[in-house]
């Protein structure tokens, strides 16, 4: 079943949860809604499920407008963050619930429950109560319960958030395999970028009630559309500044970086991945930024360095790969920072002001390398 | 989303007509069962005008005596149960020991005993035909010196244990030998309080000590019925607060009394107040047990509830309702106190967590 | 933890000792005395005291009326608790507080006003008596006043459970296709059973022992509206102490047994927690 969301708005009191969100989910996709808390992803999921009603906008499923339809009429399977298992019912009764309320014949219910129990490998625990199960087992029961009634779309709300790392890993792979087998349209909500990338076909990055970008994991990582997306995926250091005629001025300093993509003049944010920050102990024409080293952490495969810029005291974080050789770095010493693969995004802070013509006689102080 | 928000959100899952009907029914039930009777009490009491109302209460000798008697019996029973309630709550909430569950269950025992049976029991023991009847009738007061001296010894033991330093390093002299101190000191206290009572003939001889059909019986019966109230209020409160603060005080050198008055009491303040107020309301209103034990001598052994019944039998409805209205006012004050206590307790929790949050941020 | 407390935190032996002492002399010894006294009767005398027709009628009425009233309290209490927790309406706080009134109001006052309300000249009686509903001096009156007395018990035990219910399970039921009624019946109600049973037990125990309220409302007619406590008082006034005690013992034993039964039901209804 395909889902199509058109300009959905939702407010809770003074808080805007969804600000005109539109999204198309083709049939059979495994989609991740990725974003920080408060971005609106759970609200969107619940609106698709029918557990919330949008203030305006439409939700269309296979061409049918289901915006006003209540949750019980939509054929959705919903897996809750804290499982929401019925604690007074056994595992088998929980799984059977969706079929029981639809008054399915007893034999059919029994068969389907057995099928589901086999799928989640919990046949021996079918007469246990949720209180007697581990977190991972409960999550599997919640999944089986949602799938038992053969929903057209499966919705999962941070399904693995409450589990420990190893169980999370196993369940992620399991969901991926399940989807490959069953091909039911699935949408899950997560704030964990790694999880979204590992499991989903497509990723929707959300922030502050809006969609920032939609695409495959590879797309979104390599070609982030906004500063937020860039920052959210991976470890990033950002610099505020202004763009003027294809040059980015670092804050109020006289350090300039060339801008490769077309970016309008005005306030902007330059982002660089921490592993693209190079640190030198000697002044270097390619490394225009002087900074004092505040912290060095050499444990692990990369050396993590924290520096404080000498001009405006803002922080820079660098990850230096040990394979490439790392110069000796002492906290307190002054170092010189080179930024590679800088992406510049216009900042939403203020509308672009008319910029004066560039002084053609001014020499650029820095050039990006590579 | 807050729990409140959740409830409201869930309520929106119910259709409007369902909400309206259920709410209407619930309100109707409360109105018919609670509000109408409440208003009726005052309406009937004032049915012959305020002047008569006043006269009924304060110019009727027997009614006034009943009011005075209730004012003696209820607070005394309350005091007895208060001391018990605090000690029992302390033992149960702060320690774990074999039989703890049993003790807690036994405290609830008076709830399952009919008040009439309670009164009957005291008649069985203290009544003329009862177990202690003959003894009390003959020479009841001869027990008093023993009782009083034992109380004095108990007080001494209490003070001794309460003031004794906790830190073993600080124990010197008298504090170092608790058993010796208890026996010798206790014996001394007993002798010192006992002898004067005998020598100065403080208590009448060969006179009967009336318990049943007299005020002491009323106090005992009322204390039995209201036995669990303070304890049941305090135990959950003390359990919720936990032991850490008291342990911290002890580690800083406080002795028993200091821990109790300076740490425990301020924390349980509101639960204590509510327990007292509730216990008092029930004590003032107790009917069944007091009925059996009292002997119905108007002006002497009638408490307010018994007076209500007597006036009712005499078909004096306005008088009856007048007394009832006083007790109803006490009940309403109890309800107000509950609201106040709940609010104060919520405030205390709020400011305590705010303080913690401030420290954290 | 406990052994640390006992040595470190003062007052254990003192408080425990006094509590047990007070409990014994005020509660345990008197109750024992009651059984002791009843024990002085021969078996024949005991049976003839407690098994008269009048006594049997009194037991039936006492336990029957308390049972009916407690059931009514469960239904009404559930309704009131639901409305108080889930819905908003004007004066809700006031009504919430008033639910506690039966706990604080003397039973004699309750009995007095209920009898006055339902007589033909009373505020409610004037409408109900012409319809054939006699509230005063009838068994219905006894049940009504017992409902009043027991009202807070179910409401106050169910309210906290309702408050704490996991909202997600209701969403889960809806997402699985359950109607509101199915959600209530299969998901919410089972979780309320333990509280309902506890509330029933408390209301029932209260109702069995109630004297003050019933005395005004019932008219105390033997075989018709005489409850067991009233029978005990009647025997006492005849100075038939042993017979009165015998009936009291029967009442005590039956009360203890029913409380035990209710306890068992309660433990069974929370079996899924363990």
Provide structural commentary.
The complex is a heterotrimer of chains A (370), B (361) and C (274). Residues 350-370 of chain A have low confidence and may be disordered. With 370 residues, chain A is of the alpha+beta class. Chain A has helices at residues 41-49, 91-101, 106-119, 135-148, 165-182, 193-199, 217-222, 227-232; strands spanning 3-12, 15-25, 30-34, 56-61, 64-65, 76-79, 153-157, 185-190, 202-207, 210-215, 236-244, 247-250, 256-258, 266-273, 277-280, 289-297, 302-309, 315-321, 334-339, 343-346. With 361 residues, chain B is mostly helical. Chain B has 16 helices and no strands. Chain B has helices at 3-11, 16-45, 49-59, 61-94, 100-107, 115-126, 133-139, 144-163, 178-199, 215-225, 227-241, 244-251, 256-285, 288-294, 304-313, 317-360. Chain B starts with a helix and ends with a helix. The relative contact order of chain B is 0.13. Chain C folds into two domains: 11-40; 42-273, MetI-like fold (Orthogonal Bundle), CATH 1.10.3720. In chain C, helix 4 (53-86) packs parallel to helix 9 and helix 10 (167-175) crosses helix 11 (180-209). Chains B and C meet through helix 1, helix 2, helix 4, helix 5 and helix 6 of B and helix 1, helix 2, helix 4, helix 5 and helix 6 of C.
The averaged pLDDT of chain A comes out at 84
Total beta-strand segments of chain A: 20
> Radius of gyration of chain C, rounded?
23 Å
Shape of chain C: globular
Biggest sheet strand order of chain A reads 6-7-8-3-9-10
Q: Give the helix tally of chain A.
A: 8
Mean pLDDT of chain C: 86
Give the CA-based shape of chain A.
elongated
Order of helices and strands of chain A: EEEHEEEHHHEHEHEEHHEEEEEEEEEE
């Amino acid at each position: 079943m395909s889902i199509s969301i058109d300009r959905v708005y939702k407010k809770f009191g003074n808080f805007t949860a969804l600000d005109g969100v539109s999204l198309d989910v083709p049939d059979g996709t495994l989609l991740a809604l990725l974003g920080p808390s408060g971005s609106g992803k759970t609200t969107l999921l619940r609106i698709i499920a029918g557990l919330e009603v949008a203030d305006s906008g439409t939700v269309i499923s296979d061409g049918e407008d289901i915006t006003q339809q209540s949750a019980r009429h939509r054929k959705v399977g919903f897996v809750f963050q804290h499982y929401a298992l019925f604690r007074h019912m056994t595992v088998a009764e929980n799984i059977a619930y969706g079929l029981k309320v639809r008054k399915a014949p007893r034999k059919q219910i029994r068969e389907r429950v057995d099928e589901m129990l086999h799928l989640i490998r919990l046949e021996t625990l079918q007469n246990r109560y949720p209180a007697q199960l581990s977190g991972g087992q409960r999550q599997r029961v919640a999944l089986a319960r949602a799938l038992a009634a053969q929903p057209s779309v499966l919705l999962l709300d941070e399904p693995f958030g409450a589990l420990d790392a190893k169980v999370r890993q196993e369940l992620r792979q399991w969901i991926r395999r399940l989807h490959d087998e069953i091909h039911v349209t699935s949408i899950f909500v997560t704030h964990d970028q790694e999880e979204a990338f590992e499991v989903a076909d497509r990723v929707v990055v959300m922030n502050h009630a809006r969609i920032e970008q939609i695409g495959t994991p590879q797309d979104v990582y390599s070609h982030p559309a906004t500063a937020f997306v860039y920052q959210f995926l991976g470890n990033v250091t950002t610099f505020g500044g202004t763009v003027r005629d294809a040059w980015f001025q670092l804050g109020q300093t006289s350090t300039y970086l060339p801008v490769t993509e077309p970016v309008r003049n005005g306030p902007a944010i330059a982002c660089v991945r921490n592993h693209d920050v190079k640190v030198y102990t000697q002044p270097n024409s390619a490394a225009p930024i002087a900074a004092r080293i505040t912290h060095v952490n050499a444990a692990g495969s990369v050396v993590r360095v924290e520096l404080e810029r000498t001009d405006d005291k803002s922080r820079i974080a660098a990850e230096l790969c040990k394979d490439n050789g790392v110069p000796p770095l002492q906290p307190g010493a002054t170092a010189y920072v080179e930024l590679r693969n800088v992406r510049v995004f216009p900042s939403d802070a203020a509308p672009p002001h008319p910029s004066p013509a560039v002084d053609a006689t001014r020499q650029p102080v820095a050039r990006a390398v590579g | 989303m807050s729990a409140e928000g959740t409830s409201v959100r869930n309520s929106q899952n119910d259709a409007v007509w369902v909400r309206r009907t259920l709410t209407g029914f619930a309100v109707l039930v409360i109105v018919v069962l609670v509000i109408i009777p409440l208003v009726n009490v005052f309406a009937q009491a004032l049915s012959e005008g305020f002047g008569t109302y006043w006269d009924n209460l304060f110019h009727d000798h027997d009614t006034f005596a009943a009011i005075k008697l209730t004012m003696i019996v209820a607070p005394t029973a309350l005091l007895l149960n208060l001391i018990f309630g605090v000690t029992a709550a302390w033992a149960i909430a702060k320690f774990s020991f074999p039989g703890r569950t049993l003790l807690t269950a036994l405290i609830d025992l008076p709830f399952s005993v009919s008040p009439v049976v309670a009164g009957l029991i005291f008649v069985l023991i203290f009544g003329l035909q009862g177990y202690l009847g003959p003894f009390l009738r003959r020479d009841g007061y001869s027990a008093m010196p023993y009782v009083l001296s034992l109380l004095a010894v108990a007080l001494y033991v209490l003070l001794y244990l309460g003031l004794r330093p906790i830190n073993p390093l600080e124990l010197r002299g008298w504090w170092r030998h608790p058993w010796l101190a208890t026996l010798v000191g206790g014996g001394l206290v007993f002798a010192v309080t006992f002898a004067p009572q005998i020598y100065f003939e403080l208590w009448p001889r060969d006179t009967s000590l009336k318990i049943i059909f007299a005020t002491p019986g009323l106090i005992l019966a009322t204390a039995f019925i209201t036995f669990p109230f303070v304890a049941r209020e305090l135990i959950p409160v003390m359990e919720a607060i936990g032991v850490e603060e008291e342990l911290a005080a002890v580690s800083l050198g406080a002795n028993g009394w200091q821990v109790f008055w300076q740490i425990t009491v301020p924390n349980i303040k509101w639960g204590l107040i509510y327990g007292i107020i509730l216990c008092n309301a029930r004590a003032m209103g107790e009917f069944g047990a007091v009925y059996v034990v009292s002997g119905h001598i108007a002006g002497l052994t009638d408490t307010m509830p018994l007076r209500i019944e007597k006036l009712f039998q005499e078909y004096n409805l306005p008088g009856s309702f007048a007394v009832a209205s006083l007790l109803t006012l006490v009940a309403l004050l109890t309800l107000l106190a509950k609201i106040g206590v709940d609010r104060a307790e919520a405030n205390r929790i709020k400011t305590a967590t705010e303080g913690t949050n401030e420290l954290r941020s | 933890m406990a052994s640390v407390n006992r040595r470190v935190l003062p007052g254990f032996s003192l408080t425990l000792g006094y509590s047990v002492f007070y409990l014994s002399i005020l509660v345990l010894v008197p109750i024992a005395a009651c059984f002791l006294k009843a024990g002085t009767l021969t078996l024949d005398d005991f049976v003839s005291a407690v098994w008269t027709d009048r006594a049997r009628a009194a037991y039936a009425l006492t336990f029957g009326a308390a049972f009916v009233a407690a059931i009514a309290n469960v239904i009404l209490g559930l309704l009131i608790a639901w409305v108080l927790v889930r819905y908003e309406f004007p004066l809700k706080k006031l009504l919430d507080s008033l639910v506690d009134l039966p706990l604080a109001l003397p039973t004699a006052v309750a009995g007095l006003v209920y009898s006055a309300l339902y007589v033909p000249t009373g505020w409610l009686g004037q409408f109900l008596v012409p319809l054939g509903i006699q509230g005063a001096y009838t068994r219905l009156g006894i049940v009504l006043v017992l409902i009043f007395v027991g009202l807070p018990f179910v409401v106050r035990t169910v309210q906290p459970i309702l408050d704490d219910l996991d909202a997600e399970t209701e969403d889960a039921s809806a997402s699985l296709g359950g109607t509101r009624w199915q959600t209530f019946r299969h998901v919410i109600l089972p979780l309320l059973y333990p509280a309902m049973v506890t509330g029933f037990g408390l209301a029932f125990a209260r109702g069995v022992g109630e004297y003050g309220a019933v005395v005004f409302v019932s008219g105390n007619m033997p075989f018709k509206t005489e409850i067991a406590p009233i029978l005990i008082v009647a025997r006492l006034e005849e100075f038939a102490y042993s017979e009165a005690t015998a009936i009291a013992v029967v009442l005590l034993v039956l009360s203890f047994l029913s409380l035990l039964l209710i306890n068992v039901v309660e433990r069974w209804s929370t079996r899924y927690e363990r």
